[in-house]
């Protein structure tokens, strides 16, 4: 791979309700940081990251777009979806509502994005989860089980992972899993 900056450039978009952690996942991916109190009015718009998929012998540049706070106005336009190869559909595992709402985000994606787009459902904030009722604050109880997430993803033909932008667990893995799927489609000529 010497001498090659990257083999592919892929556009990724990140959707889901406000406050599920979309900007935080993007910051974690591109900057290896976590902000406890990010400014909600200043959503991160864009970040890029090189990832290597060793078994394909490929370096991929991910260009990731976040909704930058516009999700609460439902003003996301077609141009946001245009040319996207991958999508992270994010909910918060401690918020049932965000899991319910993810259905309408998927509907949006299906309406506006390329039909071959690879979508991964990401249950974020697993660092907050505990089943121990005596756990000290700020641990919150999980409102969406792993099995529910997995099952719905399967029904909808989505990839699935649970992650934490705070601890970093599975953040790169989520992007990598989606990227592998996209490269496989490229290989199959889809
Ligand atoms: P967005 O509106 O979907 O982009 O959400 P933000 O990235 O702005 O995050 C909303 C809030 O959740 C912020 O206070 C973040 O610090 C917090 N947050 C985001 N991801 C995580 C996570 O994985 N774990 C925890 N504990 N908090 C998170």
From TrEMBL:
GO molecular function, one term: GTPase activity
Ranges in a coiled coil: none
Protein name as it appears in the record: Ras-domain-containing protein
Database matches in Pfam families: Ras
Keywords of the record: GTP-binding, Lipoprotein, Nucleotide-binding
Family as reported in the entry's similarity comment: Belongs to the small GTPase superfamily. Rab family.
Keyword hit for Nucleotide-binding: yes
């Amino acid at each position: 791979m010497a001498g090659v900056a990257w083999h592919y450039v892929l556009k990724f978009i990140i959707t889901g309700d406000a406050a599920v952690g979309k900007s935080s996942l993007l910051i974690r991916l591109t900057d290896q940081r976590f902000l406890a109190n990010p400014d909600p009015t200043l959503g991160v718009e864009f970040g890029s990251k090189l990832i290597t998929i060793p078994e394909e012998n490929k370096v991929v540049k991910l260009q990731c777009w976040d909704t930058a706070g516009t999700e609460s106005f439902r003003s996301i336009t077609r141009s946001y979806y245009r040319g996207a190869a991958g999508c992270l559909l994010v909910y918060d595992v401690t918020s049932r509502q965000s899991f319910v709402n993810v259905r309408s985000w998927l509907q949006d994606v299906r309406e506006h994005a390329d039909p071959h787009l690879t979508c991964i459902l990401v249950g974020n904030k697993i660092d907050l989860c505990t089943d121990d009722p005596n756990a000290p604050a700020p641990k919150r109880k999980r409102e969406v089980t792993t099995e529910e997430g997995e099952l719905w993803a399967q029904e909808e033909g989505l990839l699935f992972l649970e992650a934490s932008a705070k601890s970093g667990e599975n953040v790169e893995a989520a992007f990598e899993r989606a990227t592998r799927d996209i490269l496989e489609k490229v290989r199959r000529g889809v």
